[in-house]
TrEMBL record:
Occurrences of domain VOC (ranges): 22-136, 150-265
Keywords linked to the UniProt accession: Dioxygenase, Oxidoreductase
One example GO MF annotation: dioxygenase activity
Name of this chain's protein: Glyoxalase/bleomycin resistance protein/dioxygenase
Listed PROSITE patterns: VOC (PS51819)
Annotated source species: Streptomyces toyocaensis
């Protein structure tokens, strides 16, 4: 669960820019901001800082002073699923958005400026899974990876991995490592020799009510304890703790229904 850029700087220096194609940020748009801030603050120890203002009511979540995620408010006229959206780093969001379209994806939002923080677009791959593109300016993206309370991994669940993985390879420069198995459709996406995300193909077993979607894994010290805390705070357990490819993991939902995973790491 390592990535290809944006390592922690304990001495307080600004983090390096993320290698293009690296998942560099996650963002959640909700109906009511204050209760969701309370939920994630209690669950992950996050503190919050307002902005950028160009995104409407929006806050950056901080873990020990480092930005790790963003939460904003959905416009009242938009009836969109409540979901964590991963953003991939880009040096030129306009060019990346054009590549998304030329490779069979769609761009639903942007490209647009987020003040002095950077420039973004939100699109979907050919299967319909939603993701973001982030071109940094003042805000380079997530500054910590894999520590408790921070994003640690990203997985795309879709119908089949072959064509969808090729989309991400072409748009973001990923390389693929395919699991050779007759009953396991799985690809790991790499940048600079390091794994950055995974693609799982479920075929007809993919739930119709979910469709293709990205899941963000947040690191915790103990998955079972994190699940208990989620439930005490008003969230729900969707998949009980089990040992997976990334370690002991569970899938949960926050009080507004946004799905995410918690994965156990060393504290």
């Amino acid at each position: 669960m390592t990535d290809a850029g944006g390592s922690t700087r304990p001495n307080g220096e600004a983090p390096e820019r993320h290698t293009p194609g690296t998942p560099c940020w996650v963002s959640l748009m909700v109906h009511r901001l204050d209760p969701i801030q309370e939920f994630y603050g209690a669950l992950f120890g996050w503190e919050f800082r307002p902005g950028p203002g160009q995104l409407g009511p929006y806050v950056s979540a901080l873990r020990e002073g480092y930005p790790v995620a963003g939460i904003g408010v959905l416009p009242p006229d938009r009836h969109l699923p409540i979901a964590w959206t991963p953003y991939f780093a880009s040096d030129d969001v306009n060019a990346t958005a054009a590549a998304v379209r030329s490779c069979g994806g769609t761009v639903g939002v942007g490209p647009l400026d987020a003040g002095g923080a950077g420039r973004l677009a939100i699109g979907s791959d050919p299967g319909g899974a939603v993701f973001g593109i982030w071109q940094p300016a003042a805000h380079t993206g997530r500054a910590v990876t894999g520590a408790p309370g921070t994003p640690a991994w990203y997985e795309l669940t879709t119908y089949e991995s072959t064509h969808v993985a090729k989309f991400y390879e072409t748009v973001f420069g990923h390389d693929e490592e395919r699991t050779v198995s007759a009953d396991h459709d799985h690809v790991t996406l790499h940048l600079a020799g390091r794994p950055v995300a995974a693609v799982h193909g479920l075929g007809h077993a993919l739930p119709r009510d979910r469709g293709p979607h990205w899941t963000t894994f947040f690191a915790v010290v103990a998955a079972d304890e994190a699940v208990s805390r989620v439930e005490r705070l008003g969230g729900r357990l969707l998949e009980p703790p089990h040992d997976g490819d990334q370690g002991r993991v569970a899938v949960v939902a926050d009080p507004e229904g946004a799905r995410f995973a918690v994965v156990e790491v060393a504290g």
